[in-house]
Amino acid sequence: MPDQSIPQARTSAEVSQDPDSTGGHGVSRRALLGTAGATGLVLGAAGGAVGYAAAPAPATPLTSVGSGRAMFHGKHQPGITEGLQARGHLAAFDLTAGAGRKEAAALLRRWSATAERLMSGEAAPHDDTDVARDAGPSSLTITFGFGHGFFGRTGLEKQRPSALDPLPDFSSDHLDKARSDGDLWVQIGANDALVAFHALRAIQRDAGGAARLRWQMNGFNRTPGATAHPMTARNLMGQLDGTRNPKPTDSDFDRRIFVPASGEPAWMANGSYAVVRRIRMLLDDWEKLSVSAQEAVIGRRKSNGAPLSGGGETTPMDLEKTDTKGEYVVPLNAHARITRPDKNGGAAMLRRPFSYHDGFDADGTPDAGLLFVCWQADPLRGFVPVQRKLDRGDALSQFIRHEASGLFAVPGGAAKGEYVGQRLLEG
């Protein structure tokens, strides 16, 4: 969960006299984190921060959506263990010709400074566009990673992790190289679309002459609070997606998801590896199936995510249960059966995807699906064995197509006063 902070209340006069509070844009986004009461206000699901108002008018409380705040500095980078956000942007950049280690360090320093400010609800450090002026932090997270090619371009080949070796080819791949890989990767998520776009634009502008955009994708999820109670998200096939996700409360969570502090290379301590896949869903074909046929493909009830063997969403799946005809209740090629960790040598990954819709083809076919993002301490033990098994006979494979792919090393979080990747670039 995001860290929470309790900012001290300030009067409107104190805000107006604070040179850091305006940034040349009148009342800044920092003012949003002030409070109307004398005791301060917890940021998070139960709290609210104040909205933009012309001083000295009384502050207006934000809703819980706007007040949510994640911390930039910490043991791990933000955007990994936080809950799914309503809006997301994924982008990859390539270093420009002539840009090397020095330019990359300056870029990561700029990006980190911008991320810290925006995640705090403040304006961008330079030439803020005011797109998010009226909003609070809205649980914004910005995450940075390095692709395979980054190390050659910066003369850091000896620091490239072996876990960053290119992913193997899979039979279900129809990859567009122009929308795959990249030297640098940025993940942006927020519970407000304007806040997310504001961050994307700031990051792109900060790239300057050091890096050029390689590809960019937009995604979305259900808005927090849209359901009567918190629940597992649904994907565009209508299925609950993420039922068996590892949880931070699991005893082996850190071991499976994060590189240990004593791991190699040292600069990846407390980091993780992100596999990114643009998976197109062949919705026209999928929607022709009856609900029972869809459930057989997945191995779970569409209504509540319960395994076909019975119980509720979190009930362990009984893979040996048969029907009156002696057939397995959960088919042998059901997606949920094949992806179980206990059927893949314990392989586990933390799924944190976004759905996407990029319009319709000329014949009316929807270009829609999943921006699949999964996190693991080692992709060769997490994503790769599961995907290989899916490749050999997953019932879902005929309804999806992998169209883009990337693998990125995401270092641990930056300490206060540091920038992301500093231990690599200055080590």
Give a short synopsis of this structure.
With 427 residues, the protein is of the alpha+beta class.
Number of helical elements: 11
| Uncertain stretches | 1-28, 30-59
Q: Tell me about the largest β-sheet.
A: 5 strands, antiparallel
How large a portion of the residues is in β-strands, by DSSP E? 15-25%
User: What overall form do the CA principal axes indicate?
Assistant: globular
Given helix and strand content, the structural type is alpha+beta
Query: What gyration radius follows from the Cα positions, in whole Å?
Result: 23 Å
Question: In sequence order, what are the helices and strands, one letter per element?
Answer: HHEHEHEHEHEHHHEEEHEH
> Quick one: how many beta strands?
9
The N- to C-terminal Cα distance equals 30 Å
Helix content: 10-25%
Family: Belongs to the DyP-type peroxidase family.
Cofactor: heme b
Biased composition (Polar residues): 1-20
Protein name: Deferrochelatase
How is this structure best described in words?
With 427 residues, this protein is an alpha+beta fold. The chain has a domain at 1-65. Helices cover 20% and strands 17% of the residues. The protein has eleven helices and nine strands. The strands form two sheets. Strands 5, 6, 7, 8 and 9 form a five-stranded antiparallel beta sheet that branches. A four-stranded antiparallel beta sheet has the order 2-3-1-4. Helix 3 runs antiparallel to helix 5 (193-207). It is globular. It starts with 11 loop residues before the first helix and ends with a helix.
